[in-house]
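Protocol step 4 of 5: obtain the predicted structure for the target chain.
Materials: sequence only (see below). No template structures provided, no constraints applied. The aim of this step is simply to have a reference model before the mutagenesis design in step 5. Sequence pasted as it appears in the construct record:
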Amino acid sequence: MANVRGSGAQLKNSRPYTVDGKVYSFTHDRSGKLIGVTSKGSNGKFNVAEDLNQPKFTTDAAQSAISNSYNIANYKGNKESYETFADVSYASIEEREKFLNDNKKKFANQSVIEQEDVTRDQNIATQNAAPKSSNKSEVMSYPFDLNPKQDHFKIMRYNYIRPDINMSKGPDQEIARVKGAQANKQKKYGNNQTPDRIINRAGDSVVGSELKGSVLLPMPKATDVNGAEWGKSELTISGIAALGAANMVAGRLANDDGQALAEKEARERLNAERGRNVEGNAGTEFARALGVQMTSKLAGMAFGTQLDADTFLARTGGKVLNPNAEMLFQGPVIRDFAFSFIMIARSQKEGERIRKIIRFLKLGMAPKFRSTTFLKSPDIFTLHYKNGLGKDDYLRTVNQFNPGGLALTTMNVDYAPFGYWSAYRDSQPVSVKMDLNFTELRPLYESDQLETPEDSVGY
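Step 4 output (structure tokens):
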């Protein structure tokens, strides 16, 4: 390698380089050796110290930027002397660590000052904690400079309360009760309480209960899967006849008057179209099927063997009893959601905030020990895709979540997401990957979807 010419200054920063969508400036010492790198922060300044040992600085694009900045710092316009990335000289490990730590402290102090200015402006999510004189719960955000007036993801944590033994009712079940008792409800919840906020849904375990804190995170990958359980059902003519008899006794009790009338009209129309009595025809078919079943059963008993009706019919006439197979509704599906977040500590304060968010969520999902006999339910969460600080500033372009709340079922935290341990001097991991899995507390019904605005995608 040719002799390196010093720049004359103690440290020299390179021009900006864009690598994988992020802007960096590389710093060289007096002798031209690479000593550190900083990235451009949200304020447009290169005030975020980076660790050169991160995997992102080993990509082809990063290596090209590093070698280019090194050659300019050492040889300026003498391109004949330019060297490859493999020949780039680095400052000693001690010098690089000192540069990184000194700049982290300086930039951390600057971030705190800037953050206080932002807090006084509009971004209440960047407050470290609620004022001691306030009863409001704490709001934590990552990153520090997250702007809640842009699209973001909000997690709110509540204690779990059950006012009813059955919390799977749809909202339409309680509308009449709410309207009739609205005056009493207003005394309890306040004059600003609206009827749709006290409709009975699984959210009764949330409404009026203690809010234990909120977390604001960048928008994750937003997906939702809605479903209903359908299953195959088979009934031969004898089963259908038995079902019809049971329906005469108990089925009418399960149907409202409107449904019973609709079923009667449907049978009359079908009889008129076919020119015969459908129920009478079914009775004739049942008698024939019963005769076959009895004959096969008696024959089997006489010769000490098991002989079912289908075997008898198949071997004697090449036919079987019609199973009358259908797909029938069997029940609702409770949705679950998976989210993944990569959190990189850009300052000591941001590292503390990351640890605080992780602990906050772990506390919320943990069951509460009361005795060797009983355990108390963990806290529950509400989730929102939002744009703004108001309670109605949710996004209508992606799904909403069940207002009844969700359980945090699993939480996986990877403190070395790139496959090796990388941490700052205080042992704070440079990067943390957090995977969260939530499950809604009750299914969604048609009445829930009807409540959503027509210009939204619904739940």
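Step 4 remarks: The chain has three domains: 11-121, 126-226+334-451, 235-324. The CA atoms of residues 272 and 278 lie 9 Å apart.
Proceed to step 5.
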